[in-house]
Write a structure and sequence with these properties.
Oligomer: single chain
Shape: globular
Distance between the termini: 108 Å
Number of helices: 22
Helix content: 40-55%
Radius of gyration: 31 Å
Structural class: alpha/beta
CATH topology of the largest domain: Beta-Lactamase
CATH class of the largest domain: Alpha Beta
Number of domains: 4
Number of strands: 18
Length: 663
C-alpha cells in the first residue's frame, strides 16, 4: 500500500511552485523589456555612427574645404563649397559599399530635385513646423524595400543659406544656371524647410533578437513543467542565457568587422583623390616657387597643401583608433633615447608656439635614463599630441614639457608632464575628455578644430606602452597632462642624463647637414600600372622630371601585356609600380601572374588601403615593397631608386656614374 503525501508537503510544493512561477514571469518580463531596450539601443547606435560621419563631413566642408577653395576663386563650385553637395557625394560612395544605410537631406522647396521630400518626409517636416520645440523624431519605416529605423532632425534656415536661397536675383549665377529659377528660393531665416534623416537597417536585428523574445514568452508554456521541477528549468535558463551571451559576442564581432571594412573602404576612397590633390598642389608649388611667383600665390598653394595634409592626418587618427579598438596595433619595441624624443618634439612644436606668440619650454628635471626599451614612434606620437593640444588651446603665456623620474610606492616611473596656461577644462568635461570625438563643447571644435580623437589615442597608446595619461585642470588657469610609464616595463639603462643631453641633441640638430637631394633616375625604365587618370598624370610627372622613362598601363591585364612587349623589345622595366585596386585584373592578380611567368624584378605596390594586414597582403601576393597613397615625391623617388639599385640594374646618375641613383 502506497503512503499518501502529507497535506503540509502538498501545500509547501503548491506555494513553492506558485512562487517559482511568479519569479519566472517577472524574470521573463524583465528580460523581454531589456531585450527591447537593447534592440532600440543597437538601432540608435547605428544611426548615430552614420550621423556623426555626416556631421564630420559637413563640418569639414564648412570650416576647411570651403574657405580653402574661396581663397582661390570667387566662383561658386558646388562640388567643393556646398556642404549639402559634398555630403551627398560622400554618402553616395558610402551607399555603394553599405547600401542598407541611408543619409537623406529632404527639403520641401529644394534647388536640386534629388533633395525633394517624399510624402512621408513632408509629414515629418510639417510636424517640426507645428511644434518648434520638437528637435527629433524617430521610428521604423519600410525604406527601399527594407525595414529601417530612422531618426529625423529639422533643417533650419540660417542667415548664410539666404545667400543662395533668397531669390534668383541674389543667388550666384552658377547656381541659377544649374538649377533654374522655378524652385529653391523664397526661404526665410529660422524657417523649417526640411529634415535630415538617417536610416539604419533593422532586419538583421529583428532576426537576432526575435528568438530571445520567443524563448522568454515560451516560459508561459513551461509553467506546468515548472510546477514539477523549478530547478531543472533554472538550469535550462542558465544555458539559454549563456547562449544569449555567445550570440551577443558574435554580433559584436560582426559589427567590428563591418566597421573595419567600412573604414578600409572609406580610407581607400578618400586617399585616392587626396593623392592627386596633394601631389599636383606640391608640383604646382614647386613650379611656381622656381618661377618666382607672387608670395601671396605661394601662400595660397601652401594653404591648400596644409589643409590637405590636415585631412590626411584626421583619416590616420581614425584608422589608429580602429586598430587600437580591434587590438591589432603592433608596437615595435626597441632601444631609444628619451632625450632625443624630447628634442624631436621641441624642434617640431617650437615654431608652432612662436607663431601663436607663446613660449614652449622642454626640460629634464634631475636625471633620467639615457636609453629605454619602448616604441619610440608611438611615444613621440603621444608627446606630440599632448604638447600640440596644449599649444592649440593656449592663447597667451607658455607651455612647458618636463621629464623626470618619480617614485610611486615601490616602483619608479618615467613621467612626462605638459603644463599650459590655456583655457582650462571644467570638472564635468574632464569626465568625457578621453571619449572618442569628444571636446570641451561644440564651440571648441569650431574655434580650435580637431576631431577629439588625439587624447583617446594618446591614452590608449600610453596604456599599451605600460603607463597611462592623467589630467588636472582649472578653468581659466590652464591644464596639466601627465604621461607616466613604468620604468620596470621600459628596461632602462643604468647611465643617466640630464638637461645637458637635451641641449646636445638640440645643438646637433642645428648643425645637421642639409637634406640630401632627391635621386635622379636617368636611364631607368618604370612600368606604371594605375587606373586613375589624375594619379597617372601625377606619378608620371614626378618620375619623368627625375629622368625616368615611364611606360603606362591602365589596368592589371594591360600591365601584363605591356611587360611582355618590353621583354620582346629587350627593354625590360627596372621597376614596376602596381596599383592594387584596378578593374578587369586587379594588382594582386597581376602580380601573382607576373611572378608565375617568371618575372623576378622589383614590384612596388601602390595602394590607398592603410589598414592592418594590407602590407602583408601585398607582400604575400609577390610585391617587393609597399607604398600608401597619397604618394610623397621624396618617398616615391627614393623607393624606386633603392629597388633599382638592389636589383643591380645598370642605371646612370645625372653625372653618368653607374649606380649613382641615391648617393
Amino acid at each position: 500500500m502506497r503512503r499518501s503525501i502529507p497535506l503540509a508537503a502538498c501545500r509547501f510544493y503548491l506555494w513553492g511552485s506558485l512562487f517559482v512561477v511568479t519569479v519566472l514571469l517577472l524574470a521573463a518580463a524583465l528580460v523581454d523589456y531589456f531585450d527591447r531596450q537593447a534592440f532600440q539601443a543597437e538601432a540608435r547606435h547605428r544611426v548615430e555612427v552614420v550621423n556623426q560621419l555626416g556631421k564630420a563631413v559637413r563640418t569639414y566642408c564648412k570650416e576647411t574645404l570651403r574657405p580653402a577653395v574661396q581663397a582661390h576663386t570667387d566662383k561658386l563650385i558646388l562640388e567643393a563649397m556646398s556642404s549639402t553637395f559634398v555630403t551627398r557625394g560622400v554618402f553616395e560612395v558610402f551607399n555603394r559599399h553599405m547600401p542598407q544605410y541611408r543619409y537623406r537631406q529632404a527639403v520641401l522647396n529644394p534647388l536640386n530635385p534629388r533633395n525633394k521630400a517624399d510624402e512621408f518626409e513632408q509629414r515629418l517636416v510639417e510636424q517640426f513646423r507645428r511644434n518648434p520645440q520638437l528637435k527629433e523624431l524617430d521610428g521604423y519605416r519600410q525604406y527601399h524595400g527594407r525595414r529601417s529605423y530612422y531618426v529625423a532632425r529639422p533643417i533650419l534656415v540660417e542667415r548664410r543659406c539666404l545667400q543662395c536661397h533668397h531669390s534668383p536675383q541674389t543667388a550666384p549665377p552658377e547656381l541659377v544656371a544649374r538649377y533654374g529659377t522655378q524652385t529653391g528660393y523664397g526661404w526665410k531665416e529660422g524657417e523649417v524647410v526640411g529634415a535630415l534623416l538617417v536610416y539604419a537597417p533593422t532586419e538583421d536585428l529583428v532576426a537576432q533578437y526575435a528568438w530571445i523574445r520567443y524563448t522568454v514568452w515560451g516560459v508561459f508554456a513551461l509553467m506546468g513543467a515548472a510546477l514539477l521541477g523549478g530547478g531543472a528549468f533554472a538550469y535550462r535558463r542558465l544555458l539559454s542565457m549563456n547562449h544569449v551571451l555567445q550570440l551577443a559576442r558574435r554580433r559584436a564581432d560582426q559589427a567590428n568587422r563591418a566597421k573595419s571594412t567600412f573604414l578600409a573602404n572609406m580610407s581607400h576612397e578618400i586617399r585616392t583623390p587626396l593623392t592627386a590633390i596633394l601631389g599636383f598642389t606640391e608640383e604646382l608649388l614647386l613650379q611656381r616657387r622656381n618661377q618666382g611667383a607672387d608670395p601671396e600665390e605661394l601662400e595660397q598653394l601652401q594653404t591648400v597643401l596644409r589643409n590637405g595634409r590636415h585631412l590626411l592626418g584626421l583619416i590616420n587618427e581614425i584608422l589608429d583608433l580602429s586598430k587600437i579598438e580591434a587590438d591589432k596595433l603592433q608596437l615595435e619595441i626597441q632601444p631609444c633615447s628619451p632625450a632625443e624624443i624630447l628634442a624631436d618634439v621641441a624642434s617640431a612644436l617650437t615654431v608652432r608656439a612662436q607663431q601663436k606668440g607663446i613660449h614652449f619650454h622642454v626640460n629634464i628635471e634631475g636625471r633620467i635614463p639615457a636609453r629605454i626599451h619602448t616604441d619610440p614612434t608611438r611615444l613621440r606620437q603621444v608627446l606630440f599630441n599632448l604638447a600640440g593640444n596644449a599649444i592649440k588651446f593656449t592663447e597667451r603665456g607658455s607651455v612647458t614639457l618636463t621629464a623626470r623620474v618619480e617614485r610611486k610606492g615601490r616602483n619608479k616611473r618615467l613621467v612626462f608632464r605638459i603644463q599650459d596656461t590655456g583655457i582650462g577644462i571644467d570638472a564635468e568635461t574632464l569626465q568625457r575628455l578621453f571619449r572618442p570625438f569628444a571636446q570641451a563643447d561644440a564651440s571648441m571644435s569650431r574655434r580650435f578644430g580637431g576631431t577629439g580623437l588625439g587624447l583617446v589615442i594618446s591614452r590608449r597608446l600610453a596604456q599599451q606602452l605600460g603607463g597611462d595619461v592623467q589630467v588636472e585642470s582649472t578653468p581659466g588657469q590652464g591644464s596639466t597632462f601627465t604621461l607616466w610609464l613604468d620604468l620596470a616595463h621600459l628596461r632602462p639603462s643604468t647611465d643617466l642624463v640630464g638637461n645637458e643631453a637635451l641641449r646636445l641633441k638640440a645643438d646637433t640638430a642645428k648643425e645637421a647637414p642639409a637634406a640630401a637631394k632627391l635621386p635622379r633616375l636617368e636611364g631607368l625604365r618604370v612600368l606604371l600600372a594605375e587606373d586613375g587618370p589624375d594619379n597617372q598624370r601625377l606619378i608620371c610627372a614626378i618620375l619623368k622630371k627625375a629622368g625616368a622613362d615611364v611606360h603606362l598601363a591602365a589596368d592589371g591585364q594591360e600591365a601584363v601585356e605591356k611587360l611582355q612587349q618590353l621583354l620582346q623589345q629587350q627593354t625590360p622595366p627596372h621597376v614596376i609600380l602596381m596599383d592594387m585596386q584596378m578593374p578587369h585584373l586587379d594588382g594582386y592578380q597581376a602580380v601573382r601572374l607576373l611572378r608565375q611567368q617568371g618575372f623576378q624584378g622589383p614590384i612596388v605596390a601602390l595602394t590607398a588601403n592603410a589598414m592592418q594586414g594590407d602590407r602583408e597582403k601585398c607582400l604575400q601576393a609577390g610585391c617587393s615593397d609597399y607604398l600608401t597613397k597619397p604618394i610623397r615625391r621624396e618617398q616615391l623617388l627614393r623607393t624606386v631608386a633603392r629597388w633599382a639599385r638592389e636589383a643591380q640594374q645598370p642605371l646612370a646618375s645625372a653625372g653618368g656614374e653607374p649606380g649613382g641613383l641615391d648617393k
